[in-house]
Specification:
It is a single chain. With 471 residues, the chain is of the alpha+beta class. The chain has three domains: 271 residues, BirA Bifunctional Protein, domain 2 (2-Layer Sandwich); 97 residues, Anticodon-binding domain (Rossmann fold); 63 residues, C-terminal domain of ProRS (Translation Initiation Factor IF3, 2-Layer Sandwich), CATH 3.30.110.30. The protein contains 13 helices and 25 strands. The chain has an eleven-stranded mixed beta sheet, sandwiched between helices. The protein has a five-stranded mixed beta sheet with strand order 16-15-17-18-19, with helices on both faces. A hairpin with a 5-residue loop joins strand 10 and strand 11. The chain starts with 12 loop residues before the first helix and ends with a strand.
Length: 471
Amino acid sequence: MSELKLTPRAEDFSEWYNQVVLRADLADYAPVRGCMIIKPYGWTLWENMQAALDRRFKATGHLNAAFPLFIPQSFIAKEAKHVEGFAPQLAVVTHGGGELLEEPLVVRPTSETIIGHAYAKWIKSYRDLPVLINLWNSVVRWEVRTKLFLRTLEFWWQEGHTAHATYAEAQAETIQMLNVYADFAVNEAAVPVIPGRKSESEKFAGADTTYSIEAMMGDTKALQAATSHNLGQNFAKSFEIRYLDKNNELQYCWTTSWGFSTRVIGAIIMVHGDDQGLILPPRLAPYQVVIVPIFKNDAEQGPVMEAVSRVKQQLTDFRVKVDEREETPGFKFNDWELRGVPLRLEIGPKDVQKGTVALARRDKPGKQGKSFVPQEGLGTLVAETLADIHASLYDRALAFRQANTHDPKTYEEFKQAVEKGWAFSWWCGGGECEETKATTRNIPLEQPGGTGKCIHCGQPAKEKAIFAKAY
């Protein structure tokens, strides 16, 4: 099996990541440069993420809809900052049906413009508000440098788009959805995140204010896991999204948009994975439990498979896979470790005799994570173990982030800090003070209070920001 070992994370984190994505059967490269094929195991993980988020969206009053893939190029040009921000990444269709199109069509990079066009038709009165719509789709952005899940030309995501009567309502929506993302990250993905406000230079093209959740990866780089934008009235004015208020006066709407994509699969890999491969959070894993039958001959096979069947019947509340492949137990153990299944149950002839199963936790290597437990009452034990695995993964990731987040006192210390982790530093807000070897990830909503001196220029500062190298 030595030739199948992954490159150690400490040796080459980027290469380790690429190997995990391919060997764990999550995705493959597509024939078009920068695109990817998401394989069934990876897509099931995405479906579980979709389901967990979709429940939250619907609980907050949002409904799903579908909008076209193609957008008239003139729509993109209507919002000046939007076109400036997205122009380098646009894929444009100029021919269709063998003929030159009257107007070029942009392949959807995001849907604010076509949403704006529709909302201008649909919204007439304050009675029509708020409009709370979410889309599950793919978008295309012509990236120069690509990496599976993290940055591809086409990627899958959800994008929420809402319209409101007042700024206060739009701002409440923006923060509500930021909190929904943070709740998902913590309670489904076991990934600790920091919610905060983006700097002016880092905000979404066309937004008044952008918020994000930021997560630390296993190499200490940051990853923007989701964003929520208060668009103000920028798109409303560009697309004439107006309503008659209670005084029969015409007002512009206030709009928001917010998004979460398959790049969070990359985050899960990089936050939790180890040198053996994936470690998947139990609430999202395609299989929560894998059962490996162990027998040498037909005489052993019958009793073992009967026990396997009885055990499986106890676990109907979980996503269970029985591995009946004609491979050695060792091969199967390594394969499921690579693929990150949270819990492995092994049943052999001795287990049949004793009425036990061998239970192996993916989050704890070797003998440390293995125990022999009774077959009876296994459902309750599995539920408790999976909950403990989730908590263990979260606590470990949080401890790692805390250990690698620094509070430098001088600019020289700051430069050293961002080479080996995150810096949480006072910042004056000036754009020139963002010009470092790292980027301003966000200004956390939770602040220490008081004031300090900007880590770059020494001027008075009221907020601290996270600076880090990022994906």
